[in-house]
Design a protein that fits this description.
Elements: E1 2-7, H1 26-36, E2 41-45, E3 51-52, E4 61-62, H2 71-79, E5 82-86, H3 110-128, E6 133-135, H4 149-157, E7 162-164
Parallel strand pairs: 1-2, 2-5, 6-7
Antiparallel strand pairs: 3-4
Length: 179
């Protein structure tokens, strides 16, 4: 079983790295190789990725709207060959705290987290089919402020069949091993 984090579309900016959005790019080729070997694969996709230009400064992040993944991922997901699961919303926290920006949901309140989770979930369901799983960016569940708000939102919403961090039991066919 392979769990692949940070799968996302490729924007139009020339400085963006390919995290699976480039048709026939290296990420697509690597996943195609695993599919042909009949591995079970869960791809944790970012609905609206914000990409960093070159620093931790807020001004260096590029806001992007939702763009679909390459069709091959959507086809595989609909056929049950791979699973596309949700991996945050933007994967970057743009708030007032300037460190650990990849911990997207830290220091956010319940309603803000709920709104972003729902936006990502609806976009992904509409474009990819039913999304069953959620994995938080940077293994963060809202623990830095001691409230664990992300975990509370994910468990109370009951949208996902599983919510996971980084472990050997996350992803496709492991719904019974997660909470």
């Amino acid at each position: 079983i392979f769990a692949i984090d940070d799968l996302c579309s490729l924007g139009s900016n020339i400085w963006e790295a390919d995290f699976g959005g480039k048709e026939n790019g290296n990420v697509v080729k690597a996943i195609k190789y695993l599919v042909n070997k009949e591995y079970k694969i869960t791809t944790f996709a970012i609905p609206c990725p914000f990409f960093k230009k070159n620093s931790e400064l807020i001004s260096s992040y590029q806001i992007r709207n939702f763009e679909k993944l390459p069709n091959i991922f959507i086809e595989w997901n609909k056929k049950g060959i791979i699973e596309i699961a949700q991996h945050g919303y933007k994967h970057i926290r743009l708030g007032f705290r300037g460190f650990s920006r990849s911990m997207e949901f830290e220091w956010k309140d319940h309603l803000e987290i709920l709104k972003e989770i729902e936006l990502g979930y609806e976009m992904m369901n509409k474009n990819y089919g039913l999304i069953k799983g959620f994995k938080s960016p940077a293994w963060s569940i809202g623990q830095l402020n001691g409230k664990n708000e992300l975990l509370r939102v994910c468990l109370n919403e009951e949208k996902f069949k599983y919510v996971c961090l980084s472990s050997p039991t996350n992803g496709l066919n492991y719904e019974k091993h997660n909470f």
